[in-house]
Design brief:
5-stranded parallel β-sheet, 4-stranded mixed β-sheet, TIM Barrel
């Protein structure tokens, strides 16, 4: 009998890439739902089924309102729903009151669509910085049980560095589930996100995950498993600067898209992949 495989936590930040890239470049049609999220979601769900993996989908409120049928489909396929906020605004740019309102708006949408209130949260772009550590108090006050916003990546400025690699309890009572980072000597190498997988050979990626600590977190976005190339599809009146900015983002994201599927398949051969809520349940009331 073969020994049990080590376990990683699998998640998807469920958002509409077209809405976010259009807003980022200042396009007038940014609120219009994009054309790709349905096919991306189906590709994600089919791949997870094939890998016998279940995940937590941290759902963005505005994406859920634009694509309500997709959120219901995720639930029907047996995955957990978490909260990714409502408007995808960095937490550190908000006041505590604004952050609380953003959380409530997202949870209201999710509860209306799924009939359940999410208990897990991830900040957009891991934006609970050291200057915004008040956010954990707000999350606890709003009834969340766990968070997965701490990512010790050198690419994140003023990041809230986890106290350890393993899941741990914060002073607020929340459980924190850090994103996988390989601490190799004095270096910190992010290995938990699909945007980083394109930079590492599979052998090194798996080695990094082996050394990332127990129940380390993985995250993807639907666009990273899109079977078709990403195109921002800006309106006709978009400026040359907006078009150039969008093209740069397309190039960056398509690089990750080409690598993500194969990397996740290799990860799933070595690790068991479970949702965050299942890991949180193992800790009970703080064991």
């Amino acid at each position: 009998m073969s020994p049990p495989r080590p376990t990683l936590l699998l998640s998807v930040d469920f958002e509409d890439w077209h809405q976010l890239i259009r807003r980022r470049v200042g396009a007038s049609n940014w609120q219009q739902p994009g054309p790709a999220l349905a096919r991306e979601t189906e590709a994600v769900l089919d791949l997870f089924d094939r890998l016998n993996a279940r995940a937590t989908f941290f759902v963005l409120g505005m994406a859920a309102r634009s694509h309500p049928q997709l959120v219901k489909r995720i639930v029907n396929r047996g995955h957990e729903i978490g909260c990714h906020g409502d408007a995808h605004l960095p937490v550190h740019t908000q006041t505590p009151r604004e952050f609380g309102a953003d959380l409530r708006a997202a949870r209201a949408t999710i509860e209306e669509l799924t009939g359940t209130m999410p208990v897990g949260y991830r900040a957009p772009a891991f934006s609970i910085t050291r200057a915004a550590d008040w956010a954990y108090d707000v999350l606890a006050q709003e009834g969340f049980a766990y968070d997965s916003s701490q990512h010790d990546s050198p690419a994140i400025r003023d990041r809230a560095v986890p106290t350890g690699r393993a899941p741990h309890r914060l002073q607020t009572g929340l459980w924190e589930f850090p994103i996988a980072v390989w601490r190799a000597r004095s270096a910190r190498i992010p290995v938990g996100g699909a945007s980083y997988w394109q930079l590492l050979p599979t052998r090194l990626l798996l080695r990094g995950l082996d050394n990332a600590g127990p129940l380390a977190g993985l995250y993807l976005h639907p666009y990273e498993l899109d079977p078709q190339p990403l195109r921002a599809m800006l309106p006709a009146e978009a400026t040359a600067a907006q078009q150039a900015h969008a093209k740069l983002r397309e190039t960056q994201r398509n690089g990750a898209r080409r690598r993500a599927r194969g990397a996740l398949e290799a990860i799933a051969q070595r690790f068991a992949l479970i949702p965050y809520g299942e890991a949180h349940a193992r800790f009970g009331d703080g064991a």
